[in-house]
Amino acid sequence: MQVTETRSEGLRREFRVTLPASELEQRLAGELATLKDRVKINGFRPGKVPLAHIRKLYGRSVMAEVVQNAVNEANRKIIEDNSFKLALEPKIDMVGDQAEVEKALEAKGDLDFTVALEVLPQFELADLSGVSITKQVASVSDEDLDEAVNRMARQNRSFAPKDGSAAEGDRVTVDFVGRIDGEEFKGGTAEGIDVEIGAGSFIPGFEEQLVGVSAGDEKKVSVAFPENYGVAELAGKPAEFDVVVKAVQTPGDTVIDDELAKGFGMESLEKLREAVRGAIGRDFETQSRRKLKKELLDALDAKYAFDLPNGLVEQEFTAVWSQVEADLKNNGRTFSDDGTTEEAARAEYRRIAERRVRLGLVLAQIGEKADIKVSDEEVDRALVERVRQYPGQERQVWEFYQKNPTAKAELRAPIFEEKTVDHILGQVKVVEEQTSREDLFRDEDETASPEVKDAGEPASS
Q1: What is the topology classification, in CATH, of domain 158-252?
Q2: What is the C-alpha to C-alpha distance for residues 195 and 9, in angstroms, rounded to an integer?
Q3: Are 321 and 281 in contact, with CB atoms under 8 Å apart?
Q4: Which of these, 454, 357, 376, lies nearest to 415 by C-alpha position?
Q5: Cα(82)–Cα(89) distance, integer angstroms
Q6: Which of 140, 450, 416 is nearest to 287 (CA)?
Q7: Model confidence over 348-370: pLDDT tens digits?
Q8: CA–CA separation, 409 and 415 (whole Å)
Q9: Which pairs with CB-CB distance under 8 Å and at least 24 residues apart come from 232-235?
């Protein structure tokens, strides 16, 4: 086997590999000889089948294995001899026309193929000792706690039948049939639906038009679906609903006491408030961590500039762009609705893809140098958390991951990333800054479209 480098430009390399016909014949003969002792063919005793007959029956398929083995061997040789770290799997192309390839497959001509690959860039890790980032922290106020407990109490209050007409805060049970341009539409028909007037759970304008109805009434409700409605086919369209009122109920008093706590599995109101305060605190800490991580990634991104493997960038861009297009379609929007063009959006999302790839490579090298490991126990805990996200399907999800090592291995990437981020946070200066709940949850760019937010996260390495 002869391997010759034919291209070296930036991170791209290309090699030409040649296997002479004599070597192909030798490898094929060796494989057929091994097969001779295993194959069973009617009319021949085991091990006594003529090689010529075996070659006639199995030569083509065995040669395919010989070629595949040669390709794998060439790949290993190229990587090991050059100490390459690959960005993606090598691309293999046969040299010559179909007739030449056919001659090679019959061991009557040389086998020529090219191996094109991209290597990972080499770069020095930056000194982070002078980096300072801010961690925004918010305390759980009594107002936050009271608001949460009151909301829980309102959501769990009892309702009693009401003889009179419905008012704000009442619950109306209805059947309805919705139509657009006189035609019923999918999802527009339902029976026995509870509508709490003023809760804002239905299309804007629907609940308000139920004020004043009584049990047994029939009413036509006219509304318009929001422009950003989740179903693109309905977004922005006017609709009419024929509504039949089945019952009207009025809410009981909102009572906050030990009985409320027991309804949530707590022994007392004090214990309920403690649990709610803890849950709010964890939400605050999660958001604080998210913003801290974003600021750290911004600082890292500013520290590094190096060539990126085009294949990785294209792969990441394709994933991001697919999400963008899906979000636009689902929301019934266009690029012009967001004040941009497809060309400008593509350029912006390509920059996002490049940032994600760059940060992924940086975090991978930092983690490797720090000898950060992810244990099987950590992966199993992550799998348990993933399974909990699918109530009622726990067994199927668990079995899927157990039967698919690649899917299970993908759980390691975010764990590795978070451990690496923790390692980096130990190298930089972190200054805590007290802030309000509103500021903690306010995005830096509130006008950004949903698919842009968090798009700066690094690509999995």
Answers
A1: Chitinase A; domain 3 (3.10.50)
A2: 65
A3: no
A4: 376
A5: 16
A6: 140
A7: 999 999 999 999 999 999 999 99
A8: 11
A9: 232/329, 232/330, 232/331, 232/332, 233/185, 233/332, 234/180, 234/185, 235/331, 235/332, 235/333
Residues 131, 425 contacting (CB under 8 angstroms): no
Tokens 């089945």 sit at which residue? 246
Instruction: Tell me, yes or no, if the two domains 158-252 and 266-440 fold the same way.
Output: no
Q: Rounded to an integer, what distance in angstroms lies between the CA atom of residue 249 and that of residue 163?
A: 8
In the three-class reduction of DSSP (H, G, I as helix; E, B as strand; rest coil), residue 139 is classed as coil
Alpha-carbon distance of 275 to 113, in angstroms, equals 65
Task: Please tell me the distance from the alpha carbon of residue 195 to that of residue 168, in angstroms, as a whole number.
Answer: 11
Write out the CATH class of domain 2-118. Answer: alpha beta
Q: From residue 135, give the alpha-carbon distance in Å to each of 23, 138, 446.
A: 64, 10, 20
Structure tokens at 204: 């804007």
Q: List Cα–Cα distances, 342 to 8, 335, 446, in angstroms.
A: 34, 6, 21
- CB 408 within 8 Å of CB 383: yes
Structure token digits, residue 421: 């981020």
Which sequence spans correspond to the domains of the chain? 2-118, 158-252, 266-440
C-alpha to C-alpha distances, 445 to 95, 339, 450, 453, 454, nearest whole angstrom: 52, 15, 11, 8, 11
Per-residue pLDDT reduced to its tens digit, 397-409: 999 999 998 898 8
Please list, residue by residue across 297-315, b when 16 or more beta carbons sit within 10 angstroms of its beta carbon and e when fewer do.
bebbbeebeeebbebbbeb
Min mean pLDDT across 54-58, 125-129, 158-162 is at 54-58
pTM, two decimal places:
0.76
CATH class of the 266-440 domain in this structure: mainly alpha
Q: What is the DSSP string of 332-360?
A: T--TGGGT--HHHHHHHHHHHHHHHHHHH
